[in-house]
Amino acid sequence: MASSSGASSPSPTDVTDYAGRVVIVTGGTRGIGRGCVEVFASAGAHVVFCSHEPDGGAELSTTVTARGPGRAEFARCDVADAGALTALVTETAVRLGRLDCLINNAGWHPPHKPIDDFTLDEFESLMRLNVTSVFVGCRAALPFLRLSRGCIINIASLVATIGQYHATTYVASKGAVLSLTKALAVDEARHGVRVNAVSPGNIDTPLWQQAVDQSPDPRRTRADGEAAQPLGRMGTAEEVGRLCLFLAAGATFTTGVDHIISGGAELGYGRKVAD
Ligand SMILES: NC(=O)c1ccc[n+]([C@@H]2O[C@H](COP(=O)([O-])OP(=O)(O)OC[C@H]3O[C@@H](n4cnc5c(N)ncnc54)[C@H](O)[C@@H]3O)[C@@H](O)[C@H]2O)c1
């Protein structure tokens, strides 16, 4: 339908095509970030991804680039270092001539414990990793995203909305990411920049496996993780990547929204109903 306000609506897009676009994914060497790197490169994008550790970065960029049609490039960067993250974003956008999408994914979930056992240093360093890096990444990317009318996707978490046992610091950090997303979406709409959150439930990644391995009963922890979803399994990193691609390439009238990808874990008051 034609717009009565005179504002032009975008022409129809192929939601699986992101050719010619430049994307930055923080924390892309494994897990959800890796899923995003692979999906966006398979849609034709030039993806620059980072990690604070070198492990796996070069191999992943070689494999993804060989597969095409897009390409992936690894850069070592600790997102908790504001100067390094700002330089990564700015240098990438200047060198490649544009920036279309920033996915703020790098983050960590500390082992579960009551608030009494968290130190102030632990809380502050988690906020620096999970929240400050999102602020820094967005601030550095926006001058370029305003030119391309691009988008930001912040990886939050389902537990920001429903809470989680013995995880006060993590849940607080992801709540901050969600709120920042909404406030930034309000400010940037006038520039045509969309800012959305993706909130995964249980996604089978190395981080989730770490939680399994550290638990007193690893088999039970994994079984409980699978059973938490009415869909009967955990999600995959690729499924989260596909949602992010849809938000970037196709969801052109969506901003400031928390997109939960949880296999229905929170539905029906979280109660699991057996037949
Ligand atoms: N897996 C889940 O079930 C789940 C659920 C909700 C939210 N999340 C969120 O999704 C994001 C990714 O989680 P995941 O499960 O894929 O984790 P993961 O540990 O499997 O992978 C994390 C990635 O981030 C990178 N990274 C970590 N610290 C970094 C730093 N300081 N600087 C740069 N890179 C860094 C790692 O190198 C890795 O590439 C996190 O923000 C996490 O909180 C995950």
CATH superfamily: NAD(P)-binding Rossmann-like Domain
How much is the average pLDDT? Answer: 95
- Rg over CA atoms, rounded to whole Å, is 19 Å
Order of helices and strands: EHEHEHEHEHHEHHHE
3D architecture notes:
There is one protein chain. The chain has 275 residues and is an alpha/beta fold. It has one domain (22-200, 235-260): NAD(P)-binding Rossmann-like Domain (Rossmann fold), CATH 3.40.50.720. Helix content is 45%, strand content 13%. The protein has helices spanning 31-42, 57-67, 82-96, 120-148, 159-162, 168-188, 206-214, 218-227, 237-249, and strands at residues 22-26, 46-51, 71-76, 101-104, 151-155, 194-200, 258-261. It has a seven-stranded parallel beta sheet, sandwiched between helices. Helix 1 packs across helix 9 (237-249). It is globular and about 50 Å long. The chain starts with 21 loop residues before the first strand and ends in a 14-residue tail after the last strand. The model is unreliable at 1-6 (pLDDT under 50). It binds nicotinamide-adenine-dinucleotide.
List its salient traits.
7-stranded parallel beta sheet; globular; binds nicotinamide-adenine-dinucleotide; single chain; disordered N terminus; alpha/beta; Rossmann fold; 7 strands; 275 residues
